[in-house]
Design a protein that fits this description.
globular, 335 residues, five-stranded antiparallel sheet, binds adenosine-5'-diphosphate, 42% helix, alpha+beta
Length: 335
Amino acid sequence: LIADGTLVLDTDWRITWHNSAAVRLLGLAGNRDLGQPVTSLLRAPAFEQYMREGDFTRAVEVASPIRLGHLLAVRVVPYGRGQYLLLVRDITRMQRLQNMRRDFVANASHELRSPLTVLGGYLENLADDDSIPEVWAKPLAEMQAQCGRMTSLVNDLLELSRLETDAPGEPDEQPVPVPQMVRRIVGEAEAQSDGTRTIDVEIDENLGLAGIESELYSAFSNLVFNAVGYTESGGRIQVNWYRDADGAARFRVTDDGIGIEARHLPFVTQRFYRVDPSRSRSHGGTGLGLAIVKHVLQRHDGRLTVRSEPGEGSEFCCEFPGQRVRSLRAESARA
Ligand code: ADP
């Protein structure tokens, strides 16, 4: 028994064959629906758009036409000459499990926050207390550092689950002043690295972006702080914010640091994926930074490209389509 609904379509999307699972999932009227275009039986805007656009490398999710609250994944597979296979699967359960996982992580992180604040507070008092014997100085400092790490982890987890759950916010009417933001990030990175890394900055002062400032801030700062963290002392970092001839806006961070081996590259945006966990920890990494970057970019119609050579350095580039670009000149003229 095939649980997936399977239909054979001709070039006009008319059904020439289907199995019984297709009847059950789509509420077909059995053989009477043979010869009908599938787009007139499954009437969902997302599905119609999917068929119109014809990019069948992915599946499309549509609400079940017969069972309220059920979700279907529908996918077209071209085969043979002028024939298409349409596969339909009920993904309601999978979707629920995913939501449960997401909510659980969000709730657990949220619950961990207040105990951590209490612990951190007491540890700070103890570290400042002169009556504590000297032998405790080191353990206390270590406890404080670990408490700080846990706090960063919890904060990153919360941010990630917010990015996953919230609908992508409406871009504010005011464009995000990216040049100012980038300078602030670079300033913080320089302060943190105590001048042991050189950061060169090149910014198109006129280039703004329609989007959410706090999210862009977190994405861009993750990239700059990674460049600092994965570069040796004396390293050089280049930060660029510019518009290309193709109209796209690009935020690019280049470093001459340790680099990443090609086999790791496909995975670095996965949560908790680290090439070298102890190196990541030593720069205060949580393993979630690039996952956050990827989500933020998705929510801004952008994409991330990474190029890297072990021992030579890395280049992380965020690309935003021309429709997101806003000119800041009018703003500064008014100010
Ligand atoms: P982390 O908190 O560990 O830095 P990220 O999600 O930001 O986590 O990055 C994932 C992994 O990708 C890092 O652990 C590191 O191995 C690698 N990485 C990220 N940025 C760089 C970089 N600029 N140079 C070399 N490796 C990097």
